[in-house]
Every structure is written in C-alpha cells, then in structure tokens.
Give the backbone structure.
Amino acid sequence: MCHPSWGRALAAAQRLRDLALLRRVRDRIDREYVQPLDVEALARGVNMSAGHLSRQFRAAYGESPYAYLMTRRIERAMALLRRGDLSVTEVCFAVGCASLGTFSTRFTELVGMPPSVYRDQAASATAGLPPCVAKQVTRPVRHREAPVAELHLAC
C-alpha cells in the first residue's frame, strides 16, 4: 500500500508537467499566430487530446486556446491598423485570419468597435506615443471586464 503523500506528490509532479506543456502551447500561439492553428494541431504538439488541452488551458489561463489565439491576432491587428497604411482586409489576412467576417466580429467583440472605425480613430489617438506605451494602452481586454488601472511609462 502506498503512502498517501506519494499520491499527492505524483499529482503535483503531473500538474507541473502539464503546466510546462501548456506554456509550450501558449508560446507556440504567440510565435505562430499567423499560421493556421487549431486545437487539434496544438494538442498533437504536446501529446494531449484536444479536449484535455482545452480544459487544462482554460483552467490555467482563463480562456480557451482558440480565444487566446484570437486575442493575439486582434492585438497584432490593432497595431497594424494604428499604422494606417493597410486596409482592414489586408490586416485580416496579415494576422492569420481566413475570414473577414469572423475577423470583424471577433475584433468588435474584443475592442468594442469594428476594425474600420478603430483604424480611423486609433491613428490619431496614439500619435506621438512611444510604441510600447501605445501597445499597453490599446491592448484588447476581453469584454472590457478589466479597465487599465495605471499606465506605466517604463518601456
């Protein structure tokens, strides 16, 4: 018969291994957000089932792998739209979205306005700000649930 603390130690070790794998998935999304990524491909990369990866990722990061991927894409799209030299369609495809409709819908959900309106307003709103500050103050917040508490000017 095993000592009860061994079971807890094994469970804790497995949890640490799972967290390391989840970090690898998150890092892959951050690196390859332009690529056509899906949960099945991400799960295969870390030898997990898609369902297990989705559940564990949501538990660790508060959102599904797909939602995290779309947030990264929208965040990059915001930066490209602020530049003002690309159309919304060009930005959509540049960040890895295959559907302009899906891109516009997700952008509007995350940012609170359609990408075309954001493009028109954002270029003037961030003019003169260092890029690191512009990125911080324009970072998408899912459903606007958490306002930015304080602006840190250290880049």
Remarks:
- DSSP finds eight helices and no strands in the chain.
- Residues 133 and 153 are 6 Å apart (CA to CA).
- Confidence is low (pLDDT under 50) at residues 143-152.
